[in-house]
Design a protein that fits this description.
Layout (H helix, E strand, L loop, with lengths): L3 H4 L8 H13 L1 E3 H8 L3 H13 L3 E7 L3 E7 L1 H19 L2
Antiparallel strand pairs: 1-3, 2-3
Length: 98
């Protein structure tokens, strides 16, 4: 069984905004930056900072989409999906022991 202390080892997903981003990405795999802004109700700078942390950890990829105008899109990586799944499983174990 996981302990709450072990959950904190993943500093990337331990942040509620970053966890929210990953939970939103899991079923969708790709979203636009603007969509995340609306869903999470954060500032563009705040979201960019969190996405850069997730990108540095290898959990997401940021890229440009060119349609009517350039837009930033976010793609979930395999590593991101796996690590989020592990984190959620550990969180579930901790919560079930309460």
């Amino acid at each position: 069984m996981e302990s709450p202390r072990e959950l904190t080892k993943n500093h990337v997903l331990g942040n509620p905004i970053r966890l929210g981003i990953m939970l939103y990405l899991l079923p969708r795999r790709r979203v636009l930056f603007k969509e995340l802004l609306e869903i999470l109700e954060v500032t563009p700078g705040n979201l960019d900072s969190h996405l850069r942390a997730l990108e540095k950890a290898g959990y997401v990829e940021l890229y440009k989409v060119f349609a009517d105008r350039p837009r930033t899109a976010v793609k979930l990586t395999e590593k991101g999906a796996e690590e989020t799944g592990k984190y959620l499983k550990a969180l579930k174990e901790v919560l079930s022991s309460v």
